[in-house]
Design brief:
With about 150 residues, the chain is an all-beta fold. It has one domain: Immunoglobulins (Immunoglobulin-like, Sandwich), CATH 2.60.40. The chain has no helices and 7 strands. The strands form 2 sheets. Strands 4-3-6-7 form a 4-stranded antiparallel β-sheet, with no helix packed on it. A 3-stranded antiparallel β-sheet has the order 1-2-5, with no helix packed on it. A hairpin with a 2-residue loop joins strand 1 and strand 2. It is globular and about 45 Å long. The two termini are about 15 Å apart. The structure holds calcium ion (2 copies). The site of one calcium ion has 5 residues, from loops. One calcium ion binds next to loops.
Length: about 150
């Protein structure tokens, strides 16, 4: 079992997501990579931030995954950096649907740039219940792979 800081519910972000508690202990997503690249948008090549990740939660449900950029991961004073969070700048969102095993993968790109050395995080919200997860582990740009 991973060690858990006081007050954290991170060990409850494990499959299957049938645990209950505040927000039904909604699992947070895992970000597997985050990098700057170019994409063809409307006939033009544009620089984008490309984020890939996974979510394990309840089976056959739709989740709204929100993405955030931050200068650094959560680093509260006088404690060990957690490596999770934060969510300083909202980058965008997308809905993902889990399969019968509760798994989903996602790819998200945005023209909002997250500079090299900064981090991206994500949250997941169960659209059926409105339960929102804690912030995911932070993934530094360019981080391939992060998990
Ligand atoms: Ca959970
Ligand atoms: Ca749960």
């Amino acid at each position: 079992m991973p060690t858990t800081p006081p007050g954290s519910q991170r060990t409850t972000s494990l499959p299957p997501d049938n645990d209950t508690g505040p927000n039904n202990l909604q699992n947070f997503p895992g970000i597997t990579s985050a990098r700057l690249t170019t994409r063809r948008i409307g006939g033009h090549r544009r620089k984008v931030t490309l984020i890939k990740g996974t979510l394990n939660s309840e089976a056959d449900k739709t989740y709204n995954v929100q993405f955030f950029g931050s200068p650094e991961a959560d680093n509260p004073p006088n404690t060990t950096p957690t490596g999770y969070g934060e969510g300083k700048t909202f980058l965008g969102q997308k809905n993902v649907t889990t399969n019968t095993s509760g798994d989903a993968t996602f790819t998200f790109s945005t023209r909002k740039k997250v500079p090299k050395g900064q981090v991206v995080t994500a949250t997941a919200t169960n659209l059926s219940t409105g339960d929102t997860s804690e912030f995911s582990k932070a993934c530094m740009v360019p981080g391939v792979p992060c998990l």
